[in-house]
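Lecture 7 notes: from sequence to structure.

We start with a single chain of 219 residues. Read the sequence below before looking at the structure.
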Amino acid sequence: MDDRGRPPLPARLTGPVAAVLLVLAAVLVAVAATGGLQGGDTATAVGLAADRIPGVTTLALVVTELGNTVGSTVVGLAGGALLAGRGHRAAGLCLAAVPLVASVVFTVVKRLVDRARPPADLQVLAVANESLPSGHATMVAAAWTTLVLVTWPLLAARGRVLLAGFAVLWAGAVGFTRIYLGVHWLSDVLAGWALGAGLAFAGTTALAVVTARRRVGAA
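Now the structure, written as tokens:
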């Protein structure tokens, strides 16, 4: 992973994906905020609450704590520092910056939408602040998607598969725990995943554009 000459994924690939994901996140937030998804949200929350198993609930509490917004920020900062230390400064800055930007974006959206959490009788953890989008889902998607994207050109095929597979499973697990524990609606998590991944693709698109301009200027 010390080949510093490999360019990032091209903007022509990451840019359209970023646009689609961010539009999807905006649509999910808008529809959920107006109650358009409340029927499915309620059915999912009530169904999971009725089917909770003590051992699974304990595991969910551990996963949701490890995958919290601080944990995802640490992934970005630590991974970014490691990449920068190996000579990939732009990629490292991108990885460190995207989760920080995501934390600001989801906080602003939460405050603007001000959607209520699921009722207290469904919650394993007592949480009362704004619900939409899920901060856990946004941040885990932002950090791990960015990590996969910025390291993709630097890894062998096996490393790509392993990292991408873990990222998908971890982001899925963290998001699921938020619904399972009754602290978020399903649409909160879906919107968070789309927003976080969209910001990750947007960040790597910016990385690709900046890198391409530097290469042209140095030519």
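The chain has one domain: 11-214. Keep this in mind for problem set 3.
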